[in-house]
Amino acid sequence: MSCVGFTTHSTVFTVDAKPVSSAFSTPVVSHRTTKIKTMRKKLSILLLLLIPFLSQAQLGGLLKKAKDKITQRADAKVDKEMDKTLDQVEGKKQTGPSDNSTVATETNTVENKPAVKSYSKFDFVPGEKILYAEDFAQDATGELPLNWNASGKGEVQTIDGKSGKWLRAFENTTYLTGNKKNFGENYTIEFDLMYYFEPKVKGYVMPNWKVGILSSGGIDPTDNSFLKEPDEVNNTFVNFAFSNYGGAQLSSYAKRVQTFRSDRMEMGNMMPTNNTVIHYSIQVQKTRFRLWMDEKKVFDIPRAVNVGDTMNQVYFHLEGSNYKEDEVGLFITNIKVATGLPDTRHKLLDEGKFSTTGILFDVNAATIKPESAGVLKEIGAVLKENEGVKIKIIGHTDSDGSDGANLELSKKRSEAVKAALVKDYSIDEGRISTDGKGEGQPVADNKTKEGKAQNRRVEFVKL
């Protein structure tokens, strides 16, 4: 099994220090001193018992380590006392037992967390029907995915600390997905992508990468010709520069003639996003093209996509550079193409039921992913504007796993959606009931990836 490790970049946040009243500074310092003295007495007794078994060097090392540990733990306790005092000074209400026990702290933390870590500015809603889905779960590691085509090599790999399988894309290579279906006029495309960059020596220009959609003009969408000539019929793509001065540019071609080119969208320093997973969402409505990176909307251009030749392929390309192949690359997974324009309001209020695959969860869990925010926001808006409407939320799963586990999981997921609507969108919980059907009511074939993705859905039924 191929496995790739990487180091994630962390962001350090600083907070301006403000002077604090000396009214509580002396008791805190005194408390710290008392704690240190008490802990040192107890440790001295332990060390006396160990002296016959330790060399002088060992004893010296233990004394230093013990001193550091005592100071560290005392500081931690003082920090808690200072936090408590600051809360009182600021007028914050104290909750839980008076001894600030661990259980109370954990409970308060959970209560203050949102039901779902949502993208506040994210308004993407996926299409109704899934045409193509790919997570490489059935593909052999170390090989190019089945039914895909590439101008060089590609490998399905796993990544330390991240779930699932990923396509590793290498430099100077174009990749065509295994899709065979036309997208139609209105469709959405989603995928997770990580720009892998761990150079041994820095200084070279980092390679750009692109994602595009094309029309094959009636021939096989995976034909070799599109590896070199994606502009042959109809082509729209975004070119990304992942560097200190990152940017993105959208272009369209029809029969090799450029029909549109956007200004370069400045995205600032993209280096901190290297080796982190970003969720990309694309929405096409006839000629209109929108793209989000996580919750950031990068493009919203009304007349960017050529009409007439229906798109039916998604492709990826990574440029070359002076870096070695183990120092830079792309990792791609969770690709989903869906067609149609979901009409949440009409389906829920007039038809009485709205079903969506756009509320996503962690694998085998009821934790809602942040890219579900667009759908939840729409549901929340409909319920707020129609206060007399009551609904039942019903969770569904695919057939992977046992019947019992899937049934329980579907119920927990519907409860998680209710919790999100109540906490994050202020919907009265009395208006919402929940249920789960597990894998018992499929709407598509569980033998295909697309069918499984369609079956992993959440239904909202008007009562």
What does the main sheet amount to? 9 strands, mixed
**CATH superfamily assignment of the largest domain?**
Exo-inulinase, domain 1
SSE string, helices as H and strands as E: EHHHEEEEEEEHEEEEEEEEEHEHEHEHE
| Contiguous helical run count | 8
State mean pLDDT (0 to 100 scale). 82
Shape label: globular
Share of helix, binned = 25-40%
SS content category: alpha+beta
Overall CATH class of the largest domain: Mainly Beta
Number of strands: 21
List its traits.
463 residues; globular; Jelly Rolls; 8 helices; eight-stranded antiparallel sheet; alpha+beta
How would you portray this structure in words?
The chain has 463 residues and is α+β, with helices and mostly antiparallel strands. The protein has 3 domains: 24-90; 129-339, Jelly Rolls (Sandwich); 344-462, 60s Ribosomal Protein L30, Chain: A. The chain has 8 helices and 21 strands. The chain has helices at residues 25-50, 56-89, 102-112, 225-228, 344-351, 373-385, 403-425, 449-455; strands at 3-4, 129-134, 149-150, 154-159, 162-169, 173-176, 186-197, 209-215, 234-241, 246-254, 257-261, 265-268, 277-285, 288-293, 296-301, 313-318, 328-339, 353-356, 391-396, 432-438, 458-462. The strands form 3 sheets. Strands 1, 2, 4, 5, 7, 13, 14, 15 and 17 form a 9-stranded mixed beta sheet that branches. Strands 3, 6, 8, 9, 10, 11, 12 and 16 form an 8-stranded antiparallel beta sheet that branches. The protein has a 4-stranded mixed beta sheet with strand order 18-21-19-20. Helix 1 (25-50) packs antiparallel against helix 2 (56-89) and helix 6 (373-385) packs across helix 7. The chain is globular, with a radius of gyration of 28 Å. This is OmpA family protein. It is found in: Cell outer membrane. InterPro entries: Bact_OuterMem_StrucFunc, OMP_bac, OmpA-like, OmpA-like_sf. Keywords: Cell outer membrane, Membrane, Transmembrane, Transmembrane helix. It holds the Pfam family OmpA.
